[in-house]
Design a protein that fits this description.
Number of domains: 2
Largest sheet: none
Number of strands: 0
Low-confidence stretches: none
Number of helices: 8
Mean pLDDT: 84
Oligomer: single chain
Structural class: mainly alpha
Shape: elongated
Length: about 200
């Protein structure tokens, strides 16, 4: 019997047996690779669990939020200390404001005034307060804390903020507890705006 050309074998089905062998071989290879991948995933998951449960991991977690030796008072609580709680950064900033007002208010007549309760209603001040809170944390909390950066915060950031607080952002009435609008109009922070959007989406 005369052998058919390859293109005719393709069209007449004479090479089905060869094709089936190739498919079986490829299926076997894929199965072997998939099995090896499952074994590797199992080892990775086991290793990850072992590392998470190790004392070194616990110490690393503690160090991440530990105040530096020069932090004289207990630092303000922050959402970054417990990420699993799922709270938003405004909580960190609000706690910092309370802590700042208990720590950095100066003598009568000085420029070191408390941050007024209406600080969130002054957008420029709100931006400054948030940056002040997180720059303080960067300089004083965790393994990257630096005494030099902490001193820079005390010597430059805080006094410059205290000056702008009374000169640029709020009226004297605000400092006395009687809010007065001025400057940029109040608006929601992006976290509150996001929460409201989520509530509206759920209601639809």
């Amino acid at each position: 019997m005369t052998e058919l050309p390859e293109y005719e074998r393709r069209t007449t089905g004479h090479d089905h047996g060869e094709r089936d062998k190739q498919i079986a071989a490829i299926t076997e290879i894929v199965g072997t690779v998939a099995q090896a991948q499952r074994r590797l995933e199992g080892r990775i998951n086991k290793l990850a669990k072992t590392m998470a449960d190790s004392p070194a991991a616990e110490k690393q977690e503690e160090d991440r939020a530990a105040p530096a030796a020069w932090v004289w008072f207990f630092p303000p609580a922050a959402v970054e200390d417990e990420p699993a709680a799922g709270q938003d950064p405004p909580v960190t900033v609000e706690n910092f404001v309370t802590w700042y007002n208990a720590t950095f208010v100066g003598t009568e007549g000085s420029r070191s005034k408390p941050i007024p309760a209406c600080w969130q209603q002054h957008p420029g001040l709100a931006m400054e307060v948030a940056a002040l809170a997180y720059s303080w944390r960067a300089a004083n909390i965790g393994p990257s804390a630096s005494a030099r950066e902490s001193q820079s915060w005390l010597h430059q950031w805080r006094p410059a903020f205290a000056d702008r607080l009374t000169r640029d952002w709020v009226h004297a009435d605000c400092l006395d507890g009687d809010h007065r609008d001025g400057g940029a109009p109040p608006r929601e922070n992006r976290f509150a705006a996001g929460q409201h959007a989520a509530v509206i989406d759920q209601a639809r």
